[in-house]
Amino acid sequence: MGRNLQKGEQLRPVDLARGHGLSTQAVRNYEEAGILPAAGRTPHGYRTYTPLHAGALRAFLALVPGHGHRTAASIMRAVNRGVVEEAFRLIDESHAQLLDDRRTLQAVERALRGLGSTAASGATAASGPAGRFIGPLAGELGIRPATLRKWERAGLVRPRRDPRTGYRVYDEADARDARLTHQLRRGGYLLEQIAPLIAQVRAAGGPEPLEAALRDWHGRLSARGRAMLAGAAELEAYLRERG
């Protein structure tokens, strides 16, 4: 909020709302959801808040950019219930996910560095009998065969059909496209965003079209990391206020 609050000072819902660009209904909703501690009541039944509630609101809003709304809400509910270890566990899970996403990005970059040689071997494989069926490729990626079929409908993979059985056969180029699609999906990209990237990689025969996407991905991961730091600072301040 825009001024220093004194311990024990009473605040109206509108005071909290104005200080954070929220509606008074949003403040009430946060209280009802357990994100804020329960409000006091005047003799006439009106809600009253304190600087402790303002600290809770600051902590929650600071946690959202790094952890997402659902996790941030769960963290605040755990703190307000006095189950701080549960809040710490949720924070640890978010950090672990961020680390996993960083590793995924590194895997994408490693895959892209090998695109030139993979494309060449894929062209050879496509003209011969080599390839794999949908089940083994899905198992390699840790996804369901239905997901590969969905990607095929979106034009992200283009398996040929075995002339005898009619089964889908994925050559090395298809496997490459499936790996890139899987990794970009984990990076938060939508299928419609991935499709032109895959098409450009096929046409260009190299990773250059993805460089801008990778820079953006790096930037978003860094922003999440910094947001987690900011959220941790506000949460620590709130924990000190709670005593």
From TrEMBL:
<dbReference type="GO" id="GO:0003677">
    <property type="term" value="F:DNA binding"/>
</dbReference>
<feature type="domain" description="HTH merR-type">
    <location>
        <begin position="134"/>
        <end position="200"/>
    </location>
</feature>
<keyword id="KW-0238">DNA-binding</keyword>
<dbReference type="InterPro" id="IPR009061">
    <property type="entry name" value="DNA-bd_dom_put_sf"/>
</dbReference>
<dbReference type="Pfam" id="PF13411">
    <property type="entry name" value="MerR_1"/>
</dbReference>
<feature type="domain" description="HTH merR-type">
    <location>
        <begin position="16"/>
        <end position="50"/>
    </location>
</feature>
<dbReference type="GO" id="GO:0003700">
    <property type="term" value="F:DNA-binding transcription factor activity"/>
</dbReference>
<dbReference type="InterPro" id="IPR000551">
    <property type="entry name" value="MerR-type_HTH_dom"/>
</dbReference>
<protein>
    <submittedName>
        <fullName>DNA-binding transcriptional MerR regulator</fullName>
    </submittedName>
</protein>
<dbReference type="Pfam" id="PF00376">
    <property type="entry name" value="MerR"/>
</dbReference>
<dbReference type="InterPro" id="IPR047057">
    <property type="entry name" value="MerR_fam"/>
</dbReference>
